[in-house]
Structure formats: C-alpha cells, structure tokens
C-alpha cells in the first residue's frame, strides 16, 4: 500500500500476471492428467481426463449378467462418479494454491 491507503497498481498488475501464469500452468497440468474411478471392487473402471472427458470404460466380463443389466449400469455410473470425484480433488489440489491467493490482492469479492 502506498501512503494514503491506495494500492500500488503496478504491484497489483504484477501479482495478477503471476496468478494468470500459475493458472495457465495448473490448467495445462489438469488437461494432461487422467483419473481412474472404479466400482464393484474393480469390476468397472472409468478413466477421465483432468478436463472431465471420459477416456475409457473397462468392464470385467464377470460384471456382465444379461438378466441383470441394471446392476452393470449402476456400476458404470458409480465408477464415473468416483472418477469425477478424483478430478474434483485434483482440480482443487492444482487450482487451490492459485485461486486461494486471490484474497491477498485486497480486491473486493476475491
């Protein structure tokens, strides 16, 4: 802060540029990351990219019962949810240090 309580605009701009660079790096890391979710003790495995794109679904033949398709559907859905939880945690881990620092700018709403 400068005398009179005014923020140093140049310092704020440097902080914003640094945060923008950190955010871009975190987003790039997330885009390259993959998270795997499982259900049914590994009978169904779903792999999702850090950006949320489903990359693969693997189903163990033991999970396939033509008379009980509902259970398989539930297992696939549970594996997708499990992988999405992993992506959410990874996003918080990668983005938290960047977005958590916004309060240090002294800007309203951050």
Detailed description of the structure:
By secondary structure, this protein is α+β, with helices and mostly antiparallel strands. The protein has 2 helices and 3 strands, in the order H-E-E-E-H. Strands 1-2-3 form a 3-stranded antiparallel sheet. The protein is rod-shaped and about 75 Å long. It starts with 8 loop residues before the first helix and ends in an 11-residue tail after the last helix. 11% of the residues are buried.
Please outline what is shown here.
By secondary structure, the protein is of the alpha+beta class. The protein has helices at residues 9-32, 69-99, and strands at 34-39, 44-49, 54-59. It has a 3-stranded antiparallel beta sheet.
Overall pLDDT: 84
Q: Any idea what the shape is?
A: rod-shaped
Strand order of the largest sheet: 1-2-3
What portion of residues is helical?
40-55%
The total of beta strands comes to 3
Low-confidence stretches: 103-110
Q: Name the helix and strand elements from N-terminus to C-terminus, one letter apiece.
A: HEEEH
Alpha carbon gyration radius: 21 Å
Structural class: alpha+beta
What is the rounded distance between the termini? 18 Å
Please tally the helical runs, counting DSSP H or I stretches of 4 or more residues.
2
Give a quick account of the main beta sheet: strands, pairing sense, barrel closure. Answer: 3 strands, antiparallel
How much β-strand is present in the residues?
15-25%
